[in-house]
Specification:
Layout: H1 4-25, E1 69-73, E2 76-94, H2 109-113, E3 117-130, E4 136-143, H3 153-158, E5 165-170, E6 175-183, E7 190-197, E8 203-211, E9 222-223, E10 229-231, E11 235-238, E12 244-245, E13 251-260, E14 263-270, E15 272-275, E16 299-302, H4 305-308, E17 313-317, E18 322-326, E19 331-332, E20 336-337, E21 339-343, E22 348-353, E23 357-362, E24 370-373, E25 388-394, E26 399-405, E27 412-416
Antiparallel strand pairs: 1-2, 2-3, 3-4, 5-6, 6-7, 7-8, 9-10, 10-11, 11-12, 13-14, 14-17, 15-16, 17-18, 19-20, 21-22, 22-23, 23-24, 25-26, 26-27
Length: about 425
């Protein structure tokens, strides 16, 4: 026979479960469609997973936007499509040419001498429907003039924009977020912009993101894991707060990446671009014939000894507080490149300054980073130790493998990798 205490315990559990089931059943059923224009229901806040193992520094693949894709907003699914249409019967002219070459000059001797370039009207259509594609939530159309403040006017004029990439939904900003890539066709010259549409399809903003290809920072537009902030590569957008600018006077942004939900790594190089004694933007200039899409820019990056002594990297919170400063120089070929790896088992990011040091950044507390000079790291020799995990860092200037003790990330051994084929 069961004791009275056991009986009371079982009865209490039964009543508790019954109450929970009753509360769950009390939610009203979904209402049928009404004659009012449909709007997107409020989305539940995104919840971070308990095991935070994602690499937030990974590069975005920049795939063109979805022609017809099922997306999740809060707890509901919707169908999103993005279309780009070019109208070759509606030319758009602009001068001066700036970064655009003679391949896009207006076919007239006088216009060519004046540096006039020609593109064509484009329409960018964003359509959101319910999950089965029957009800239209919104349909929004944008055009090239909407992007005139996001990139140089001459580049916007001639661009054939790929369908904007869908980056996700930010609950805090109430926005569907898109990455837009605006470039001179058949060249490596272009800019990026971040477009925000609210749940009714209204434009919340188009934020310029700076260069996207040649001379680009190591940065892609991103939403923080919780959706509370959006990185546009020139600023951080936050709900109910002004944008947090990442730009500095007399400095070039070289990298910006989320490290965790509330913290970023931001790297600058201090100095200024100074043009040489040439005439930029002229379509009559040498090496700018009718086949040139983007003439070579003739400039130098000028920096001073005092600027070269300044800390270049910051661990920056999304509130704008600088948590840590140190010197770090990314790789640079046609664009900046953070030579890096995500050591998931140890919960740390590995950043390599070529030929100098390894910077180990704990994801949970990035301000507690530490630096390990490469010359002082012990060389890896077999056998591999019980808690060591290998992580390769390969870039234009670095080919190294680090064996990190996942229980003590300060214990690192290094191995040089053979040259690439």
């Amino acid at each position: 026979m069961k004791s009275p205490k056991c009986f009371l315990l079982v009865l209490s559990l039964f009543l508790l479960l019954t109450a929970c089931e009753t509360r769950r059943a009390s939610h009203p059923a979904e209402q049928p469609d009404s004659a009012q224009p449909p709007t997107l229901p409020a989305a539940a806040p995104n919840v971070l997973p308990t095991a935070d193992t994602a690499d937030l520094t990974r590069a975005y693949n920049r795939e063109p936007g979805p022609r017809d894709s099922l997306i999740l907003v809060g707890s509901r699914h919707y169908r999103l499509s993005v279309r780009v249409e070019t109208d070759s019967t509606k030319p758009i002219d602009f001068a001066p040419a700036g970064s655009v070459g003679g391949a896009f000059a207006v076919p007239s001797d006088s216009a060519r001498r004046a540096g006039v370039v020609r593109g064509y009207a484009e329409t960018y259509t964003f359509t959101l429907r319910d999950s089965v594609g029957r009800k239209t939530i919104f349909r929004r159309q944008l055009h090239k003039p909407d992007f005139y403040k996001a990139a140089p006017r001459d580049i916007v004029t001639v661009t054939n924009m790929p369908p904007p990439s869908y980056l996700g939904y930010s609950t805090a900003l109430d926005a569907l977020v898109f990455g837009c890539y605006i470039g001179i066709p058949f060249s490596d010259v272009g800019h990026q912009a971040t477009l925000l549409l609210d749940r009714q399809g209204r434009v919340q903003g188009i934020s310029p993101g700076g260069p996207a290809y040649s001379d680009a920072p190591d940065c892609d537009p991103r939403i923080s894991p919780s959706g509370r902030a959006v990185l546009t590569c020139t600023e951080v957008l936050r709900a109910s707060q002004p944008p947090l600018s990442l730009l500095k006077p007399h400095a070039q942004l070289r990298a910006a990446r989320f490290l965790n939900d509330t913290t970023l790594l931001v790297v600058h190089e201090y100095g200024d671009y100074v043009e040489r004694s040439t005439t930029p933007g002229s379509l009559d200039a040498a090496e700018d014939g009718p086949d040139v899409t983007a003439p070579m820019s003739d400039y130098d990056f000028v920096t001073t000894p005092a600027q070269r002594r300044l800390p270049t990297a910051q661990i920056l919170s999304t509130s704008g507080r600088v948590l840590r400063q140190f010197r770090f120089v990314p790789d640079y070929e046609l664009a900046s490149d953070l030579a890096r790896a995500w050591a998931r088992a140890a919960g740390v990011y590995l950043f390599v300054e070529a030929g100098h040091k390894l910077v180990v950044v704990p994801k949970a507390h990035p301000e507690a980073l530490f630096e390990l000079p490469l010359k002082r790291l012990p060389k890896f020799r077999l056998p591999q130790r019980p808690h060591e995990q290998p992580y390769s860092v390969i870039s234009g200037f670095t080919r190294l493998r680090f064996y990190v003790d996942t229980l003590n990330p300060r214990a690192v051994r290094m191995q040089a990798l053979p040259p690439a084929d």
